[in-house]
Design a protein that fits this description.
Shape: globular
Distance between the termini: 39 Å
Number of helices: 23
Number of strands: 19
Largest sheet: 6 strands, mixed
Oligomer: single chain
Helix content: 25-40%
Radius of gyration: 23 Å
Strand order of the largest sheet: 2-1-6-3-4-5
Structural class: alpha+beta
Length: 613
């Protein structure tokens, strides 16, 4: 019998030609307890199901929608799911979290995860409910934005279905295409391209069962308390102005990446600030499914319509590209939604290309920093993979730099192939380490070490041992939150996070979990991610930052210099390896691999060890 909150099985949906079949894949309780669900369980599934060294866009490459024990409970922000696969952008493990009713309906198909493999003969939709799995041809959806595809399948199959779909970029294999649902996106790493390579435009799920929890009354009481706390000061910023409130704050402390990381302040930042837009353009505030925070802020657009805006898409399509007109940034963000493009990777790749044009490395004189029309033109070229520039930029900044050459990789804003988010590493050196070592690549959600830098508890311009501890601490907390799954915006409401998370798990699952076990779980998940990447060819040389960050200091208004040398970063990486129990090459010691449970078979048996012959 599965623990509370779980079904104890995944579904393997095999697509072939014009048909699809579903096969149960039993999940041993040791695996569920050791990985929790979400990103953790998705990582374990990739170890078991992804062919070593395989092409992320090959039919046999698995794409997993992974739920957790909390999905479907009344706990605020718990209606989330993870999408996990090998990334076509980085060639390594990638995962993306998203919130919507898709999470609840997907889990209530009776599965803790849905894993898709294979390829359809023609563009199709995959339907999963209590009756099983079936494939339906849908060539009429070709080229549609995800939102329009969702509307079309709702009309065709009925309103009881919840949909995750790709846009034109996913169909065309853009390496940073997204998967979208209810206006939200599983954005980073090119998961939309993985689904598109399977010739699947959309996945539809319909609830067919219920799942029980161990202590219903306890869960209800905990949900009431958590909801009350979610209205407190820890989440006030998100309710009042949303994540865009970070823009002016980051600009003030010289950590707002501008013009492809050539500067850390943007003179015209006030035009894009939440404070200005809230007063002049604010029209509504919205919440994700089962969320009491309501961080989503919606603004009016020039000429009519509205657009949801957040810090990361404004940073990437605004200051990073030198664009200051809010209407241009709104339009660019909307275009990314329509095409199905990750805004961070799109903005980072275009900003790199703008600098290449300045340096005479790319022949596209129209592509200039600060030109909103050029930004939109470049997005259209990427989304359609237009010959020439569009095809080049659809590869992401690392692959594009390898093609262009002339040392353009030195200023490509990426780590492990994933474009950097809106945090300047030179002026946030805990974050610099977090970006360098993270399994997903340059990422702010799996390693939020900027919290320590901005707290004043460490000198953010002088990385050292305290920064290593801070990076590890935030990475561990993220590993648990991303696997349970709870929204990161709740992190500030927990005074003793691991203790409080353990209690939530106890109420839902019935496990007698304590904070020490959860800390060990966090370390296991982080190590399992690294072990997957090492299996796929990653090395310690990948745990670094672009040469620009390590060779070119930034002069700050305070008079201090923000400099991060290669030696300093290497020293912090070495400290990270030591604290994580890794060897000098960043590898998980062989003696520790048993803790990852990678040899546990679907039926709970331990697989026979491979022979040396």
């Amino acid at each position: 019998m599965a623990p509370g909150g779980f079904f104890g099985q995944a579904l393997i949906a095999e697509v072939s030609g014009r048909t699809a079949t579903g096969t149960p894949f039993e999940l041993d309780e040791r695996v569920l307890r050791s990985y929790l669900g979400g990103v953790g369980l998705g990582t374990w599934l990739m170890h078991r199901l992804a062919p070593p060294g395989g092409d992320p866009l090959a039919p046999e490459a698995p794409l997993a929608f992974v739920f957790s024990s909390l999905v479907g409970t009344p706990l605020t922000t718990s209606a989330k799911f993870a999408v996990v696969a090998k990334s076509p952008l980085t060639g390594l493990l990638t995962d993306a979290l998203a919130s919507s009713q898709f999470a609840i309906s997907g889990k209530l198909t009776g599965h803790d995860a849905i894993v898709i493999r294979g390829r359809a003969d023609e563009l199709s939709v995959l339907l999963i409910d209590g009756a099983g799995v079936r494939l339906e041809p849908a060539p009429e959806l070709a080229g549609l934005p995800a939102a329009e595809a969702e509307s079309a399948v709702r009309q065709r199959f009925g309103r009881g279905w919840r949909t995750a779909a790709i846009g034109p970029a996913g169909e065309r294999g853009v390496r940073y295409a997204t998967i979208s649902h209810d206006g939200r996106h599983a954005g980073r790493g090119g998961l939309g391209a993985v689904l598109g390579a399977k010739n699947i435009k959309a996945v539809l799920v319909r609830a067919a069962t219920k799942v029980s929890v161990a202590d219903q009354a306890g869960v209800l009481a905990a949900a009431r308390e958590l909801r009350k706390r979610s209205f407190g000061p820890a989440t006030a910023k998100y309710r009042e102005l949303g994540t865009l409130a970070n823009l002016l704050a980051f600009n003030a402390v010289s950590t707002l990446p501008t013009r492809n990381f050539t500067a850390a302040t943007f003179d015209e930042a006030p035009k894009l600030a939440a404070e200005e837009l809230h007063e002049m353009r604010g029209v509504a505030r919205n919440s994700c499914a089962s969320c009491s925070i309501g961080c989503e802020h919606i603004y009016s657009r020039k000429g009519g319509g509205s657009q949801r805006m957040e810090y990361e898409n404004v940073f990437a399509l605004g200051p990073l590209c030198g664009v200051s007109d809010p209407d241009d940034v709104f339009a660019a963000s909307a275009r990314c939604d329509e095409l199905g493009l990750d805004t961070i990777s799109a903005g980072g790749t275009i900003a790199w290309a703008m600098e290449c044009v300045e340096r005479g490395l790319i022949d596209a004189p129209w592509l200039r920093f600060g030109d909103g029309a050029a930004l939109l033109r470049a997005l259209d070229a990427i989304g359609t993979r237009a010959p020439g520039l569009g095809e080049l930029l659809a590869q992401g900044s690392r692959r594009a730099a390898e093609i262009v050459g002339h040392d353009s990789i030195d200023f490509a804003p990426q780590v492990k192939g994933l474009e950097l988010p809106g945090y300047e590493p030179r002026s946030l050196q805990s974050m610099a380490l977090g970006l360098a070592v993270n399994a997903r690549g340059a990422d702010h959600n799996r390693s939020g070490a900027y919290e320590a830098d901005l707290s004043g508890e460490v000198d953010r311009l002088d990385g050292g041992a305290a920064h290593v501890a801070a990076a590890i601490g935030t990475e561990d907390r993220a590993a648990v939150m991303d696997s349970m799954i709870l929204c990161k915006f709740l992190r500030g409401v927990f005074t003793e996070p691991f203790t409080e998370w353990a209690e939530l798990l106890r109420l839902v699952t019935g496990w007698q979990v304590d904070s020490e076990e959860l800390r060990a779980t966090a370390r296991r998940i982080v190590r399992a991610k690294r072990a997957f990447n090492l299996r796929e060819g990653a090395t310690a040389a990948d745990d670094t930052l672009p040469a620009r960050m390590l060779e070119t200091p930034l002069e700050l208004a305070s008079g201090r210099s923000a400099a991060l040398s290669a030696d300093r970063l290497r020293s912090m990486v070495a400290g990270y390896y030591l604290a994580r129990g890794l060897d000098e090459a960043g590898r998980v010691p062989t003696a520790d691999l048993a803790d990852l449970l990678l040899e546990v078979s679907p039926a709970g048996r331990r697989d026979a060890a491979p022979s040396d012959g």
